[in-house]
Amino acid sequence: MSLCPSFQTFKPYQDPKILPKTQAFSRHCIPLQWNRKPQLAGETPCVVITSREGGVGKTTTTANVGLSLACLGFSVVAIDADVGLRNLDLLLGLESRVNYTVVEVLNGDCRLDQALVRDKRWSNFELLCISKPRSKLPIGFGGKALVWLVDALKSREEGSPDFIL
Question: Are 146 and 81 in contact (CB under 8 A)?
Fold first, then answer.
């Protein structure tokens, strides 16, 4: 069964001058095979969801994409990099399980695997928070620390996740 809408069952408004009937939606759709997990080629993709504006859905998008990939069988690590306004753990219902953050990992107070919070509903989905709510980051924290964090996640003993969000 294909998830792509066929032209016979799904007929949105279309102007024949703009989109001829021969160019139906099925040309762009790739059917998913639910009996096996798709294979990824190359190294772990790191997907960054960002915007300069607040309130546009970055956290919601990260949660939805992450859990959707976990539902498809991929291992996912979602990083909540919103400094001082951590909401991804609240959205996922994991706020009571966050004990350590990346700041403690960088300070040497805990290991990276201790800071990762595994979702009980999806064992292949993990959350990593940058800081605690309303906390100040050290002056040296910046892009290099995030690059180190992603590299550390890719070289974990447990294996690299399929996606880092």
Answer: yes
Nearest one of 41, 45, 17 to 164, comparing CA atoms: 45
For residues 63 and 78, is the Cβ–Cβ distance under 8 A?
Answer: yes
- Domain ranges in the chain are 1-32, 40-164
Please state the CATH superfamily assignment of the domain spanning residues 40-164 in this structure.
Answer: P-loop containing nucleotide triphosphate hydrolases (3.40.50.300)
* Per-residue pLDDT tens digits for 24-43: 444 444 455 555 566 666 77
| CA–CA gap between residue 123 and residue 142 (Å, rounded) | 30
- Interval 32-90: pLDDT, tens: 555 556 666 677 888 888 888 888 988 999 999 999 999 888 999 999 887 767 788 88
SS3 label, residue 129: strand
Specify the pTM.
0.71
71 vs 52, 122, 137, 144, CA distance in Å? 30, 8, 33, 31
From CA 110, how far away is CA 103, in angstroms rounded?
9
